[in-house]
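Quick one: co-fold with 5'-O-[(L-methionyl)-sulphamoyl]adenosine.
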Amino acid sequence: MEKKTFYITTPIYYPSDKLHIGHSYCTVATDALARYKRMQGFDVMFLTGTDEHGQKIEQKAQAAGVTPKQYVDNIVSGIHDLWKLMNISHDRFIRTTDDYHEEAVQKIFKELYDRGDIYKGSYKGKYCTPCESFWTESQLVDGCCPDCGRPVVDAEEEAYFFKLSKYADRLLKLFTENPEFLTPDSRRNEMIAFINQGLEDLCVSRTSFSWGVPVTFDPKHVVYVLVDALSNYLTALGYQNDRYNEVDKYWPADIHIVGKEIIRFHTIIWPAMLMALDMPLPKRVYGHGWLVMGGDKMSKSKGNVVDPVVLCERYGVDSLRYFLLREFPFGSDGNFTNELLISRINSDLANDLGNLVSRSVSMIEKYFGGKLPVDRVHDALDDELIAMASALKEKCDTAMDNLAPQTALIEIMKVIARCNKYIDETAPWVLAKDEANTARLATVMYNLLETLRICAVLLAPFMPSTTEKIAAQIGLDLTKFGYETCGTFGMLPADTAVAKGEALFPRIDMKKELEYLEEQKQKAIAETKAEAKAEANAGERAEEKEEGAGLITIDDFAKVVLTPCKIKACEPVKKSDKLLKLQLDDGTETGRQVVSGIAKYYTPDQLIGKTVLVVANLTPVKLRGELSEGMILAAENKKGEVQVLFLEDSIEAGSHVS
Ligand code: MSP
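Sure, here it is.
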C-alpha cells in the first residue's frame, strides 16, 4: 500500500548573518515533527532552505566587499554545517538563488500578471528600508514600521501590485470556516482583525535595487522578495520547473511552521497568491513563539545572540534539542537563559533519564550478570507503571498532532520519573538479598527495561542519538521493537541482555558553567566589536592603497576615456540624501545618465547648464535602482568637501580629451 504523504516546511532563512538559537529552535521543532511523522510511517517531505535576495543582503555584501552571491554562498555553507551538526533530517534544501527556483518565480509572476492579478501602478507610501516593506499610514505604530519599530521614509515609485484586496472575503471565509488552518487560536484572531481593517493591494516589485529575480517583461523591476520567498514551497516540489516532479504528490502542504512575525505573510499573502494561481491552499500554518533574552529580541549589536554551535559542542546536540523543545511551549515566547538550560539538563537528563538508564543496566549486570532470566512474578506495584507506559504512545501522538512537542516530552518524562519512583518502591537491593525473590527481581528489572524501551522509541524524534545510545545499553533492536510496538507493554524479549555504556548526560556544575558562559559572551562581544573595527580599517586601508598605488604607464592612462559633458537636467535620487541623477549631453544623440554622490554640495540649479568632465568608459552600475553610466570628476578639499571640476563653457560636449 502506498504510504500517506506529509509535507512539512520551515520558513526559509535570511542568510544575512550566521543563524542563531532562535532559528535553530524553529528548525529543531520542525525536525521533531517531521521525524515523528516518519516514525509513524508517513512518506515525509521536510523542506527547509534560504531566502537569499533583497536589499538587505545586497547592502551586507557591499559592506563586506563581495558580490551578493559570494556573500550568501558563505553563510549558506555555514547553515548546512549547522543543520548537519544539529541532526536536522530535511529531505530538501532550497535556495532562492537556485536557477530552477528563479525561473519558476518569473513564470509565477508572469502568470499572475496574465491573469490580471498583478497590474502596474505607482506606489506612494511609507517604506521601511530594513524590512523592505511598504506600509500605509494607518498601519504605522507611532509613525514607525509595525514590524521592526524603525522609522519609515516617504517613497514613490513605479511598481507592480498584486490584487490582494480582491481576496479579502475568501480569506475571511478561510479563517472562519476552517479554524484548523491557523493555530494557535490567538493568532487567528489577529489575522481576522487585520483583514477586517481592510486589505490593500500589495506592492510586489522593486526598482530601488537589483539583487532579486528580474521581472521578465519589465527587467528594471525585481520581484518583491516575499513573493519570491513564499513561492519556494511550491517550486521546491517542481512547480513551474523541471527540476522536480512532486507537486501532485506532496501539495498541498500539510503544515507550514513559521515564527509569529511572519504569520501574516503565510496566512494572508500566500493563500491569496495560491487562490490567484488556482492552487489548493496549505492545510495548516502554525505560528510559534520567539526565544527572547531577558525579554529582548536577540541582536548582534546588543551582544545577546546565542550561538547554537557553542552550546551543541559544550552540552551535546541532544541536550540542546531537548531543552529547546521541553522548556518552552511552542506557541508562546520563551525567555532563554543559561541557568534554565543547565538546570533542565541536570534535572531531566542527568538526574532522571541518564540516571535511570545507568541504574537499571548496572543492577541487571550486578544481579544477573547482564542477562535477564525468563521467570516472572507480577505484583500490584507494577500496575501503575505498566499502565502509564502503555498509554504513552497515544499521548505523544495526540501531543504531536496538536503541535505540542513540549507536552509530548512532559508525558515521556513523567513516565521516566515514575520508573525512578518504582525503583524506590520495589527496592531491588532488598529483593536481591534473597534468592527466593529472583523471579520478582527479574520482573522489576524487565518492567524498567520495557518502560525504557517505550520511552526511548518515543524520544527518537527529539533526541535521535540518545535513543540509539539507550537502545545499545538495554539490548533493544529498534528495527523489531520500534514505534509500531510501543503501545503494547511486554514486547522486549524476556531474556534480554544489557551492555553498560558511558553516562548519557554528565552532571554540569552550574556555578562554574555560568562563569564560563559569561566569559564566552564577553569574548563574543569583543570579537563583534573587533570585527566591526577591522571592517572599517579594511575600508581605510583600501583607500590608502589606491592613493599610494604609484605610477602608471601612458598605456594605462589611455584606457580611460574622459569626456566633457554638458548637464541638461538634474534631480535628487529618491530615498537618498547623497545622490543626484544627472542627464548629460556627451556629444552623442542619446546622451547618458550619471548618478553622482554630490547632493550635499550642489543643488540641481547650481549644476544645470554646466560642463563637467566624465569618466565615460566605466562599467555601468545601478545606484539606488538608477543606472549610472560614468563618473563626474571632482576634487575633495581638506575639510572633506567635494568640488566638481567644471570646464570652460566653450569646451564642446563629447570632445576628445588626452
Ligand atoms: N526569510 C523570511 C521567511 C520567508 S519564508 C517564505 C524570514 N527569515 S528569518 O531568517 O528572518 O526568520 C526565519 C524564521 O526564524 C522565522 O520564522 C522567525 O520567526 C524565526 N526566528 C528568528 N529569530 C527567532 C527567535 N529569536 N526565536 C524564534 N524564532 C525566531 O523571516
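If it helps, The first strand starts at residue 5 and ends at 13.
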